[in-house]
Amino acid sequence: MAHISYRQALHDTLRSELQRDENVLLMGEEIGRFEGSYKITAGMLDEFGPKRVRDTPIAEEGFTGAAVGAAMLGLRPVVEIMTINFSLLALDQIMNHAAKIYGMFGGQCSVPMVIRTPGGGGQQLAATHSQNVELFYAFTPGLKVVAPSSPADAKALLLASIRDDDPVLFLENLALYNTKGEVPDTDEPGEIGRAAVTRTGSDITLVGYSRMAHVALQVAERLAADEGIEAEVVDLRSLRPLDRQTVVDSVKKTNCAVVLEDDWLTYGIGAELAASISDGAFDWLDAPVRRVAMAEVPLPYAKPLESAALPSADDVVTVIHQTLDAVGRRSDRVGAR
Amino acid sequence: MATTSRTRKRPESQQATGARRTRPKGRSGTDADTGAELLGHYRQMLLVRRFEERTAQAYTEAKIGGYCHLNLGEEATVVGLMAAVTERDYLFTNYRDHGYALVRGMDPGRVMAELYGRSDGVSRGWGGSMHLFDTEVRQLGGYGIVGGQLPLAAGAGLAISYRGGDEVVLCQMGDGTTNIGAFHESLNLAALWDLPVVFVVVNNQLGMGTTVEMASAEPELSKRAGAYRMESARVDGNDVLAVREAATKAVERARTEQKPYLLETVSGRLRGHSVVDPATYRDPAEVEEVRSQDPVTALHDHLVGTEVADADTLAELDAEIGGIVKAAVEFAENSPSPDPTSLFDHTYATPVPNDSRRLPADPLFPLDPTAGA
């Protein structure tokens, strides 16, 4: 075990995969000479050379599509798209090509590639640089979408993504890059399509992914310490496939749930989770499933406006309180102390 | 060979600068090419012609669904291009892909079965007319999104270059594609990275109904190559030998020098954009001119005129091709439809847990049989 950052886990994993498999190559804007906008690929151009660590022009559609074509011939490109906002420029190649080629041609040709890209607002980057559009990819059959929240999962799921024969969108998050955690030394790939219960509890289920799974854990610890509320936290880890069973199993235990998401509420991933919980645990629910999501505006630049729009830990606590109050459980708990 | 000479009216501004399309001069004709080769090309062109005519019929009989775009009028281009690549080379095309599949060597029965949506189709009934794919002949897809195949072709070129191979990628597109961003991004990448990709613009002078002049500020599309320091050529797409010669040069350059190339072939479209398009927007005189330059008729007359073959021999050939097309239709008719139980067979190449296999009326979770009791 090593105690390292999410960034370091990604860096080390990319490096070891480049060493392991000659078919793996990195492509993206500023990943080589500039060493990556977020320095995930620092030092790699020097170590592996420009053939395998390939700086691209600013042409998301072109280089993402080129990665798809190279994958069709058996290479395993790992594309870095500087932020998920810019993936919109490659949407045709991701949704119409990477996601379709295996099925549309009757399973004759797979597309073993990874698109690494960070989401995450909250850095005063304003409206076009602060979106969380992973929903578009999670919506699309043929793609796999993973969104690790811890350094250990970042390593395990990146290994799984690179070794998988399908196109995987690997969602990172700007706010997570510097977070640290224990990471196993062994190269054991994680399982795409499985959620994890990262904290057990009996009072309420919190569901999140990426940064919000991290926030959920922090909130759960705070509530346990301050109020004796024991929240169970489900980290989705994989957005497609979606592990509904793990979520529903938790809700059957706690009888209520709050879903956390960094993106807009209407039509969002939280809506899918709420509907799934309704389908799978209707008779177990003591309160409506609540969603904590970003305000539905283009994210503003000014800090007070940005802070008001983004879901915070305090927002999550407020909604947990409201949910527990609705079922009369908080007063019991508080009274019991 | 001598197809009908063609010069089309061009905008005055272009004529003033001499940017007029003319047939290339001085290329090889029957002197340098054996009659047998030409006859072989004619046979393939005839296969495309008769297959497409029969396809149009099957479409109007509702045997074929979806969109259906034919290569009628582009037979010389298709055959000339396919004569320039080897079986080890890769091909990417747009949605007007039937002719390429046939000449590249896909079985006509399996191509027709794909159009019919049957399980023996080259894409197992998952792709249809626009998405013919066969790894055996390295035709890596017809693509329905205009420009979608260009980045893919560049990427295939990257894989070849990465491994130090000597295969070439031929990437076909229509004239309208030259205005989409993927065209610029892909040609730039290919030139920047020295990728062995021959981009071919099949200029049939019409998008759907939009002419090249309406859509392209520079209607001589091969000139776009200059922006990427890429070599290029523009040839008469109705002249199978001219196309073959130009494409061979482009392919060999890509193979030996690892350099991309932009080739433009200029021909016409004998029918509407797709089978259902009556093309009422076209000037009858323009349609008549395209018909008068019909590459199949022209080659037929040339073969007879130069005594490579007499009319009776060519009629026998036509009958033989008719038999192949008839057999293809019979094969398609008799091929079973894909079984609905195979619906989830091609979602992922690597199986993963929680992969959705839900049909529209299926519940997400098992229904409780006691509910509502």
Automatic annotation (TrEMBL), chain A:
InterPro entries: THDP-binding (IPR029061), Transketo_C/PFOR_II (IPR009014), Transketolase-like_Pyr-bd (IPR005475), Transketolase_C (IPR033248)
Name of the featured protein: Pyruvate dehydrogenase E1 component beta subunit
PANTHER family, A to Z: PYRUVATE DEHYDROGENASE E1 COMPONENT BETA SUBUNIT, PYRUVATE DEHYDROGENASE E1 COMPONENT SUBUNIT BETA
Keyword Oxidoreductase on entry: yes
Keyword presence, Chloroplast: no
Pfam name, any one: Transket_pyr
Cofactor names: thiamine diphosphate
Residue ranges of every copy of the Transketolase-like pyrimidine-binding domain listed in the record: 4-179
TrEMBL record, chain B:
Keywords linked to the UniProt accession: Oxidoreductase, Pyruvate, Thiamine pyrophosphate
Ranges in coiled-coil conformation: none
Catalysed conversion reaction: N(6)-[(R)-lipoyl]-L-lysyl-[protein] + pyruvate + H(+) = N(6)-[(R)-S(8)-acetyldihydrolipoyl]-L-lysyl-[protein] + CO2
Keyword hit for Oxidoreductase: yes
The enzyme's E.C. designation: 1.2.4.1
Any single GO BP term: pyruvate decarboxylation to acetyl-CoA
Keyword Phosphoprotein: no
InterPro entries noted in UniProt: DH_E1, PDH_E1_Alpha_Subunit, Pyrv_DH_E1_asu_subgrp-y, THDP-binding
Cofactor field: thiamine diphosphate
Region (Disordered): 1-34, 333-373
Gene3D superfamilies (alphabetical): 3.40.50.970
Known function: The pyruvate dehydrogenase complex catalyzes the overall conversion of pyruvate to acetyl-CoA and CO(2).
Binding partners and assembly: Heterodimer of an alpha and a beta chain.
Protein known as: Pyruvate dehydrogenase E1 component subunit alpha
Biological source species: Haloactinopolyspora alba
This protein's encoding gene: pdhA
